[in-house]
Amino acid sequence: MTIKLNDTELQELATQLRHPSGKGGVTIADNMNENNIKMTESSILELNLKQNEQVLELGHGNCGHLDFLLQQATSIRYVGLEISELMQQEAIKLNKKHSNSDVRFELFNGKTIPFYEKRFDKIFTVNTIYFWEDVNAFLREIYRVLKSKGKFTLTFSTKEFMETLPFTRFGFKLYSEKEIVDLLKLANFKIETIRQLNEDTVSKTGESVYRKSIIITSYKE
């Protein structure tokens, strides 16, 4: 059912999508996990995970996809970073069976990645780039903590699609495929693959939509 929201409600929705909090944030997290699962699983598959690799996810939400990720190879070590304390708590609660030293959920400021350089074999993020304050600086941070020959997969919905959603005018920075590719190259990433993912889904306001997304996998020489 489509929900008609006024500007104040749309702005609140946009705020929750950026930084989920409170009771409404839990609902938003469940909704995001359900609606974004195909994007997330497709991004994980693009990483081509191998045994013993260290994986970093930026903006894991409630991390309802962790089982899928860990099934890709044995002895994967996973770290998830979030700006939302609520999402960190939800991810820990939802993934209690993985509460060991190989799975960690941590908070960060969304600007600097709190790890030493060349730490991770694979890094990925889904639907977070709209909220990065300084895209160039953050891509340099990702490059810094990625190992040589490591892969970085960045997944986002197209600018053309996102512009059709009423809440994205509140705090979302939208990008075209070319803009993202140019930003990655500026940060010294080499482009490996660019794939399109089109799917029927439901928007955050309850509308049936045909979402067009891009999955860009790059690497560090």
TrEMBL record:
Methyltransferase recorded as keyword: yes
Entry annotated with the keyword Transferase: yes
Keywords in alphabetical order: Methyltransferase, Transferase
InterPro entries the UniProt entry points to: Methyltransf_11, SAM-dependent_MTases_sf
Pathway: Lipid metabolism; Phospholipid metabolism
GO MF annotations, alphabetized: S-adenosylmethionine-dependent methyltransferase activity
GO terms classed as biological process: methylation
Pfam families named in the record: Methyltransf_11
Residue span, Methyltransferase type domain: 56-153
Domain of life: Bacteria
Protein name: Methyltransferase domain-containing protein
Native source species: Algoriella xinjiangensis
